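User: Can you help me understand a structure? I only have the sequence.
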Amino acid sequence: MDQNVVPNYEYLCCMTTLNSTSTYFNTRGRVTQYLPQGGESTLAYFMHKLCYETEASDVYTDMQNGVDDFIVIDARSPESFAREHVPGSINIPHPLMNLETTALLPKDKMMVVYCDGIGCNASTKGSMKLASLGFAVKEMLGGLEWWKYDGYETEKGPISSNPLVCGCE
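Assistant: Let's start by predicting it. Here is the structure, written out as tokens:
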């Protein structure tokens, strides 16, 4: 693309204008540079996000209430899982996810995938792999870090001699 040509971003980001004379260059700041259309478009966007993401408090509450239509998957390394994990979760490291390692997972349940937290993308990689294998998947935002931040108990294994090892592999 010619660097001197400013692309029309309207079709990419649902940009609307504050008035009929506003343009891409006339906004007051970064926040209002691209404006949501509002109404049904905004509703559809947030509904779309909720179809693919969940949070620790929703997972915890459902677990406490006996809701059993999902399985929590820890997509981190076996070492990280052994050190600490969400109670009841099962460990399938994302690099090892394939037809064989997921063969016993039920296709009629939602897979909720997590990793270390916001500095890790093992849950994103694991969610993508599980979705490619035909599973319904949601990513648990914030991972184990936010699970603990919300005050929920974890299952802990032996203390590692190297507690700072990245679990996302």
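Now, to help you interpret it: The longest helix spans residues 39-50. The beta strands are 53-55, 70-74, 84-85, 90-91, 110-114, 137-141, 155-156. Let me know which part you'd like to focus on.
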